[in-house]
Amino acid sequence: MSRIRKAATAVAASAAITLLASACTGQSSGSADDDAGKDVTITFWHGWSAPGELKAINDNVARFEKAHPNIHVKVQGNITDDKINQALRAGGSKAPDVVSSFTTDNVGQFCSSSTFADLAPFLQKSDIDPAATFPKPMLEYTQFEGKRCSLPLLGDAYGLYYNTKEFAAAGITAPPKTLSEFKADAVKLTKSSGDSYSQLGFMPDFHGYESTPMHVAAQWGVKYFDAAGKSQVAKDPGFAAMFTWQQDMVKALGGFAKLEKFRSGFGDEFGAKNPLHTGQVAMGIDGEWRAGMAKDAGMNDLAVAPFPVPDDQAATYGKGYLSGTIIGIANTSAKKNAAWELVKFMTTDTDAVVSFANAIHNVPSTLAALKSPKLDQDPSFKTFLDIAQNPNSTTTPPSVNGGAYQVTLQDFGYAYESGKAKDLTQGLKGVDTQVDKDIAQAK
Amino acid sequence: MSAAVHPLLRARRRKAALRNLAFLSPWIVGFSVFFAYPLLSTVYFSFMHYNGVNPPTWTGTKNWSYVFRDYPLFWPALRNTLWLVVVMVTLRVVFGLGVGLLITRIKTGAGLFRTAFYLPYLAPPVAATMAFVFLLNPGTGPVNHILGDIGIPTPGWFTDPHWSKPALTMLAVWGIGDLMVIFMAALLDVPKEQYEAAELDGAGSWVRFRYVTLPNISPIVMFAVVTGVIQTMQYYTQPLVAGKVASGIIGNSGQQFEPGYPDKSTLTLPQLVYERGFQRFDYGSACVIALVLFVLAMAFTALLMRRRNGFLSAED
């Protein structure tokens, strides 16, 4: 009996702890002394997985290899940030040299932990002035506390998608520019059917795919942290205004429970049955990629405009939330100079950036590419290019613990919209306290 | 005064000790590498600040106070884990035993039923969870359509914090094939004479079950409970998949997602170990949570062992 008991306890114990058994890993010095002129093979990890995107990235890499015949690139797609973080800690000969991430959320983590190499010496060596090369918001989200460990590799801008057919049927002639116009249109476009809807004007719930607190709050031009790096969502009046507006929209469109039930029947966000594709929802906030996805799904009635702004900020109409893909060099790489050649090509070569942007319908990430005549002139794409260049457009800042502060704010949003949290002021103060505690723990 | 040991005898004893040690060495190596070292490392790192890149630095009890006082996901995850241990393990054992009893008594078609009850256990956890989320979708799922048609209130299942854990329990009970098989083996092993003797004494079916069946299969019940507790302590895939699919936010690479949707009700401690250790790279607090899991698993096992005769057979 005792043997079996020991075995059972041993299993219990080891199951709980072996997950963390291999925590110690070695790191390279981060120096760059390889010869980029010699024949070398580098590994590039990225997150794209759709066939069209894979073709576009592979074409881009082929252009690079043609321009640099001595540098061969081994490409690995469909990589998540978790895998990047784990591989860069593990190191070894199979670890990537160049890595890209779809999100800007983890730049703070990449830079502060030094898993990504500092690119400042490489930029200096190549005589590239970042401020004269990249748009300002993109420069901000690719560095952390002055350390530039990544560069933008195309960007994302968020705007308003609206169904022209449903607009016409409701007698709406133009997309709304202010949030009060938006509310009136959303109500007009909503058709109830029993305890559900046959058509909804807008899905205001924070789980409504891209209608997250962070994406919507950009319309108020919010600032997440003060100069000392402390969370300030309770101090910035934009956050309270955003939550108040969202709750007002929820009430105006039928209430949280009814909306949530309707939402649970939505198709997959990145599939053909997205509610904007099916016409279940008449208006939605989304990124520039949605236009292409909608056309692929057979939806040709979607048009694009900047997302409306608060009435008291009507002059700033045209702004939106920005994000993007970032690219950097693994600090564990022993071929940093060769890796830099690829990063430099993909992020600063105007033709490469324009071709890639046209192919996957993302926003170009250099000032020169944004002005290029070769850029796709599709009207919906043009709208996003304008949002990306709008000086009032904002992004979520990098943080030492990645996007943890966004999760905290989002969690409060869920509690507030469902009625679980009732005091907005206290709730936002609670978010500040929690964010500061989490950052202190990460430092 | 003890007599001096003869050098020859001492040498023989040393040789015997070395031989025993040699036979034990595979176990000693395994125990040291896979149990003692990870356990000691976990304790060590729980007092360090370590992100897997920079060298660990001593932080005293900071990780412990962060997890217990400042980490908002810890207590909901602990409550959920304990809820699942108590409810899910109990129901799985009860249903596993019930189905085992039923099938051992069926005269015709036992093979068909055995297969039908065992097959769900073979379903991959991710696929099974996704299927359950779609079946129980409050808006479009067939289950709520049927319930609605016959006038029964339709729960939100995986979208309602009050129903998400019962829905996960339903999923776990659906896959009781493993328990059914071991209970069937145990039930078929109960000596028939004991049932005959009990019947001659006028014992009814409940009394026969209580005083004949249960004592005979109690070691297997204990085994099922202990392994069930350990498995539930490690419950990770199903709640994670259910939460993500039901929230609708499958997410891109690196995108932030809400842990434990809805309202943290599907959050379990192993999810936190992953989140702290391999997403936030705060190995210190991940180690604290891993140690909590370790202590809980040990405590549950010790409690169960003390409650019953453990793995002793009925005649012991």
UniProtKB/TrEMBL annotation, chain A:
InterPro entries: SBP
Residue ranges crossing the lipid bilayer per the database entry: none
Protein's UniProt keywords contain Signal: yes
Keywords: Signal, Transport
Any one annotated GO CC term: ATP-binding cassette (ABC) transporter complex, substrate-binding subunit-containing
An example molecular function term from Gene Ontology annotations: maltose binding
Keyword Ribosomal protein (UniProt): no
Signal sequence segment: 1-23
GO biological process, one term: maltose transport
Family: Belongs to the bacterial solute-binding protein 1 family.
Protein name: Carbohydrate ABC transporter substrate-binding protein, CUT1 family
Lineage start: Bacteria, Bacillati, Actinomycetota, Actinomycetes, Kitasatosporales
